[in-house]
Amino acid sequence: MIIRKLTKKDIPHASRIHRDILDQGVISHLGISFLEKFYWVLLKQKNITTLVAYEDDKVVGFATAACDLKSIPRLIIRQLWRKILISLIKKPFLFYRLIQMPFYPSFKQDGRIGEIFSLAVLPDYQRRGIGTELIKHCRKEFRKYQCELFQVSVRKRIKSANKFYLKIGLSSKSRAKFLGEEIIFYQGKI
Q1: pLDDT at residue 53 in the model
Q2: How far apart, in Å, are the Cα atoms of 109 and each of 38, 45, 66, 163, 168?
Q3: Does residue 71 or residue 67 have the better pLDDT?
Q4: What structural domains does the chain harbor?
């Protein structure tokens, strides 16, 4: 297995994994075209790094690490508004969920706290240590960003992800309600 930074040629693969594995998130519902543009925009950011796990000659997982998540809603609106409008025309039910995104708890935090805001591994490659390696590499990125801590959030109902974060030594920091679901925030040291 190789962990490396996302490249342009990895974007379609990471986008499909995002859509298929993180299928409950608002961004996943915006479609592949949006996700591809989203990861293209993220490639150019100084405070965000997407890492891919590469095995068997293909991308099998990815994680996105960021510092200062407050900039992300503005980034999405400024650079992806056309894609958002197209998605809303096709799926108008997403409107309410999209206007709530800037109020996600992580987008309001101050300080040098890093966040892994997406992590996914293809089902056939889970339980092989790929997620753990992706987090280890995210920690290295957080050191470069001079973050003191990092966090990751997950819906309470996703039992396997919650068990995973506890298993790798993260501690439950807080809980919040967002869009009618309970979200658990796990925190770890860099």
Answers
A1: 98
A2: 22, 19, 12, 25, 24
A3: 67
A4: 2-189 (3.40.630.30)
